[in-house]
Input
Amino acid sequence: MDVIVYGRLEMKWKCANCGFQKDERPRSCPKCGLVQAGKWTHQKYEILEEYCHPLSLIMRNQGFEHFFIDACAGSGVVQRFNVLELMDGSPLIMAKTREWVEGKIKDKTKQLSVRCKFIEVDSKTFKLLEGYVSPYSQFVECKQGDCNVELPLMLDKIPDAFTFVYIDPFGLGEPVIRYETLEKVLERGFTELFIHFSWEGLSRAAGQLENIDHFDETLKKAARSTVETINSYMKGTEWQEVWKSQPSWRRRRAILELYLSGLKTYYEFIEYIEVPVGSKDPDYYLVFTTRNSTGGKIMKDIIGKKRRKGAIPLEKWFEGS
Output
């Protein structure tokens, strides 16, 4: 892969953190664990930041204790797509929200600032995460492990506080993000969920459906394992009938609608946006769910402006701050 590195054309990918080189760009650096941003990662980070800022300001202005959880936190910073530069990842965006709110809020006596909790499964990536968020250790907690296990435990420790949960895995997740994990979030009061729904990962894996009864035992076993993974991600087997019954051009919309229908049984307000923004053939969707009409309106406006490539007039939400 040709990579532009400080204005020069390099034939190998190079890690912006440790300098390790590789012929092909990996998802994360094999040596240090630095996560590599996708081509459109900046779009989802912009949306995340533009929501976290007003959310935390409103919560603090009203005197509400609140938490941000990043369930697939990564390395704290990420390497920009095909460039030898670092940019803030979702954990630092969340942590730096505190500073932003402090600069905006008028009543400094209101001290219930956001607290952050980050989960990362990979040991190398986790070590980087701890280092990059260390300046915020007073209000940041990092936990290494599978978010399917660790996220419910975290939520159990903050039963009565408002919590914004962000789940942004590679593809379907490594390990896969089980729908039963989402249900533990959705069933909880005082919670909002912002999740990466991987159409690309699901559609690639769903191709294995045609091999679940293959005469070759090896192929059949692999296919059934993959299908079970999607069953876990989609909550059951209904997606299989949707996949088989819909023409290829309709599958994306039908599968997304099925996924959203499950979320709608829990939360009244749901917004989503395709990534790349405005694409008719997106890699994935960002899905936001809340029971709060104000939160739903803020996110709807952010998404609408992103689709129109406009700026978010956040000040409209800060009256009385």
DSSP finds eleven helices and 14 strands in the chain. The chain has one domain: 37-208+241-316. Residues 68 and 116 are 5 Å apart (CA to CA). Residues 37-208+241-316 form a domain with the Rossmann fold fold (CATH 3.40.50.150).
